[in-house]
Amino acid sequence: MLQRLQLYSHKLQFYYIFSMATFTKFQKLLVSASTIGGATFYYINSINKDRVHNSWTTDFKPSTKWDDNWDFRAPPSLIHPRKLNSEKDENVINEQLELMKSTATRHIILIRHGQYHIEGKSDEQRILTKLGRNQAEYAGKRLKELDFPYTDIIKSTMSRAQETGTIIAKFLPNIPVTECNLIREGAPIPPEPPVGHWKPGVHFYEDGARIEAAFRKYFHRADPSQEKDSYTLLVCHANVIRYFVCRALQFPPEAWLRLSLNHASLTWISITPSGRVILRTLGDSGHMPANIITSQ
């Protein structure tokens, strides 16, 4: 009987020691799990913080997305829509789309006229000042130095642009020169914020349609038949150029007055075969000495 009691006591001690050891291991596991869980929680929180930070900086959703067919010259809009009844029809459509794709880039360089006699009562009196002619000379020299394969020079029919274009053309012989009434100075659209002085709506109504027509005439991707990149020079005016920039970049056009352009400055816009628009320079005046740069 005594032996049985001793044996039972030894078993109890063994179970106690084993359970304590097991409990200690379980405690260690709990501590380890807690540590790992805490680290995981901290890591997940860190990721979430980064994600939140990214949502403030890189995960921006534009209110208005880029319109790929802004010039109505994307290939799908140039072919007659048809119902696809077979794989053969689909192949025909794909062949037509390939034929309608542009392969060249159109570069449009807009030059504002030089300084002019702003006090003139008529267009004939608002000719270039001596400084304005000097500015036009520098613009011509710069365009010559760039040595692009210019396609043509198009001048506004207003006196100050005519004179500026004529001076520039001396540096670019053998480049065809034409005139265009559409790019005369005017009020393209009521600006936002509004200007301090009042301007009758009739001016925006008349000038706006004309300047918009000029934009549609000169700003579009290359025709499929155009094989080489082209460089067109438009010699015109500040309001016209600023409106063109806003329209080309699909910015709100009423923001045009927020931009400023110096006399005889160069603004360079490229239109790629896909219809994407690149503003390479805006009002570049680096070709002129600082002491002859003016804007008014």
UniProtKB/TrEMBL annotation:
UniProt keyword Oxidoreductase, yes or no: no
Job of this protein: Displays phosphatase activity for serine/threonine residues, and dephosphorylates and activates Pk92B kinase. Has apparently no phosphoglycerate mutase activity.
Gene Ontology molecular-function annotations: protein serine/threonine phosphatase activity
Compartments where located: Mitochondrion outer membrane
Keyword GTP-binding annotated: no
GO annotation (BP), single: positive regulation of mitochondrial fission
UniProt xrefs under Pfam families: His_Phos_1
Keyword set, alphabetical order: Hydrolase, Membrane, Mitochondrion, Mitochondrion outer membrane
Organism: Popillia japonica
Protein family (similarity comment): Belongs to the phosphoglycerate mutase family. BPG-dependent PGAM subfamily.
Its EC number(s): 3.1.3.16
Name this protein carries in UniProt: Serine/threonine-protein phosphatase PGAM5, mitochondrial
Any one GO cellular component localisation term in the record: mitochondrial outer membrane
Classification of source organism: Eukaryota, Metazoa, Ecdysozoa, Arthropoda, Hexapoda
Quaternary structure, from the entry: Interacts with Pk92B/ASK1.
Catalytic activity: O-phospho-L-threonyl-[protein] + H2O = L-threonyl-[protein] + phosphate; O-phospho-L-seryl-[protein] + H2O = L-seryl-[protein] + phosphate
Main location: mitochondrion
EC category name: hydrolase
